[in-house]
Design goal:
Number of helices: 9
Number of strands: 12
Number of domains: 2
Largest sheet: 6 strands, mixed
Order of helices and strands: EHEEEHHEHEHHEHEEHEEHE
Structural class: alpha/beta
Oligomer: single chain
Mean pLDDT: 80
Strand content: 25-35%
């Protein structure tokens, strides 16, 4: 097995850039935050950010605990991995992870400075230290069961947004999740209505038979929201079938991209065009 390491100080954007680094090196498996990830699927482990304290989180991340260590070693063996990328805040950390998991010596180390500009690194550090955000390189539905009761803010890298590249380490769009660790005391924050409306407009206007999303209304509750949407549709489409497709698209998008509970979706057909 070839073992690669991706190293950067806390909050510099390692997890955010992990997928494109792995893809550029043709690596399918990543160990980050005590989780084994295959491409964008969680294979084994439990996020270290679910621990009650920062010290416990660090111990979990390096597989200090015997039960976590055994589970991960077994999963790696079952997956028959040929290449793996380990994320860590220092050379010592990634070497300790490799040692604890019996992976062998590290073949190559990539540093965050190799793949991100100083401006992007500083932006990531502000996000971590001022807002308490941490990125996990998997979609929301893959990780959110581990963070029941805690805020999650997924980031979908759509083609409609500006793509970023960094020399060799350039990859296609991917989905990531921003979490706030259990031991964070920074309080609550919310996803703005505009973000919700942009998500809904984007996914609904891709559906055949939809001419335009005219308005999106949101009604918020303590533990979720209700959505009402006004649509302009194309003449001749089957309205009940189209409405069901719209509802499914909204439910999937809001669930996987925000983790917000939906209590209802009302669809209004306000106009028809040829």
């Amino acid at each position: 097995m070839q073992v690669y390491a991706f190293v950067g100080k806390t909050g510099t954007g390692k997890s955010y850039n992990a997928l494109r680094v792995a893809k550029s090196l043709d690596i399918k498996y990543i160990i980050d935050d005590a989780i084994l990830i295959k491409e964008t699927k969680v294979v084994a482990g439990k996020s270290a950010k679910t621990e009650a304290s920062k010290i416990a989180s660090v111990k979990a991340a390096i597989f200090f605990y015997e039960d976590r260590k055994k589970e991960m070693i077994k999963a790696i063996k079952n997956e028959k991995i040929d290449k793996i990328l380990i994320l860590g805040t220092s050379n010592d950390m990634v070497e300790k992870i490799a040692e604890n998991l019996k992976l062998g010596p590290i073949y190559k180390t990539i540093y965050i400075e190799d793949v991100a500009t100083p401006e992007k690194i500083e932006e990531a550090r502000k996000s971590r230290f001022e807002e308490g955000k941490h990125v996990v390189p998997v979609p929301t539905f893959e990780i959110k069961k581990q963070f029941s009761g805690y805020f999650m803010d997924p980031l979908r890298m759509f083609d409609i947004f500006r793509r970023e590249s960094s020399n060799l380490y350039e990859a296609e769009s991917s989905e990531k999740t921003v979490i706030r660790p259990t031991y964070s005391y920074l309080g609550k924050f919310r996803i703005s209505d505009n973000v919700i409306k942009q998500i809904i407009t984007y996914v609904v206007e891709k559906i055949n038979g939809i001419s335009k999303v005219q308005k999106v209304f949101t009604e918020k509750y303590i533990d979720g929201m209700r959505i009402e949407i006004d649509l302009q549709i194309v003449f001749g489409v089957n309205i009940p079938t189209l409405s069901n497709e719209v509802k499914k698209a909204i439910i999937h998008a809001i669930d996987t991209m925000t983790g917000i509970n939906l209590f209802g979706i009302e669809i209004n057909i306000t106009s028809i065009v040829k």
